[in-house]
Amino acid sequence: MTWDPQLYTRFEDQRSRPGLELIARIPLASPATIVDLGCGTGNLTLRLAERWPEASVLGVDSSAEMLDKARAASDGVANVRFEQGDIADFAASEGERFELIFTNAALHWLPDHETLFPNLLSRLTAHGLLAAQMPLSWDQAYAREMRALLEEHELGTQELRERMGRRPVQRSSWYWKLLFERVAHLDLWETEYQHQLEGDDPIVEWTRSTALRPVLDALDDPEAERFLELYREAVAPLYRRIGKTTLFPFRRLFLVCALAGE
């Protein structure tokens, strides 16, 4: 899947806010080793390094384009490094263990959370902590319309439509049941942001840089153009708009869990 760092960072303030709030809820005084999984352009990786300047901070992402931007932004920051890699491979491997595993808006791209989360816990030190934020986009209007258009107009392959039809993130109670007996401390919460986006088609621009990436990558150029035209027309009336400003409700799931009690 290809990523466009410039398009992704158009709404950087809105995308960064949940990650910053997650960092603020991490109850660690001085973790020595930190990894940011799905670090993207490195904006939050640098915030982690800023909060814990004595820590060794690693950013991992699968996109070479995103990592190029991250490395440029972190030039001169001694305690930060970046590596290209897959989160699932990282979680399943037996390499270095970390006192803090941080991941913001990345795990929803991966399947099989029943295996993924225990694997992530296995990469923590004895007193380590996992902090994650995932978008709860399945039930949101823009995601429902995306799935409906693919099915109604039979765009792309059946495999694509089936893949986009799978719920990427489960409900909060599912993660509570999965993690409660595996950790000593578990904090779960949800937040619905009311983003105010500027522009002619801000919902389409937002989704083009994230949720629509696998769809647009899988369609040929004529199909992609047709899909975007249909999507733009379908999504516009679903959101409140005044002038050039569109109100975009967006719900997210947060969890902070530690292997050892406080």
Keywords:
262 residues, single chain, 25% strand, alpha/beta
Secondary-structure map:
Layout: H1 5-8, H2 12-24, E1 33-37, H3 43-51, E2 56-61, H4 64-73, E3 80-84, H5 87-92, E4 98-104, H6 113-122, E5 124-135, H7 141-152, H8 158-164, H9 172-179, E6 185-198, H10 202-208, H11 213-218, H12 221-235, E7 241-242, E8 245-258
Parallel strand pairs: 1-2, 1-4, 2-3, 4-5
Antiparallel strand pairs: 5-8, 6-8, 7-8
Helix pairs in contact: 2-3, 7-12
Characterization of the model:
The chain has helices at about 5-10, 10-25, 45-50, 65-75, 85-90, 115-120, 140-150, 160-165, 170-180, 200-210, 215-220, 220-235; strands at about 35, 55-60, 80-85, 100-105, 125-135, 185-200, 240, 245-260. With about 260 residues, the chain is an alpha/beta fold. Strands 1, 2, 3, 4, 5, 6, 7 and 8 form an eight-stranded mixed sheet that branches. The relative contact order is 0.16.
Can you give me a brief rundown of this structure?
With 262 residues, the protein is an alpha/beta fold.
**Helix-and-strand structural type:** alpha/beta
The shape, in one word, is globular
CA-CA gap between termini: 40 Å
Which spans have pLDDT < 50 for at least 5 consecutive residues? none
Percent strand:
15-25%
Taking the sheet with the most strands, its summary is: 8 strands, mixed
The level of helicity is 40-55%
What's the total number of strands? 8
Helix-strand pattern, N to C? HHEHEHEHEHEHHHEHHHEE
Radius of gyration: 19 Å
The overall average pLDDT, rounded, is: 93
Alpha plus pi helix count? 12
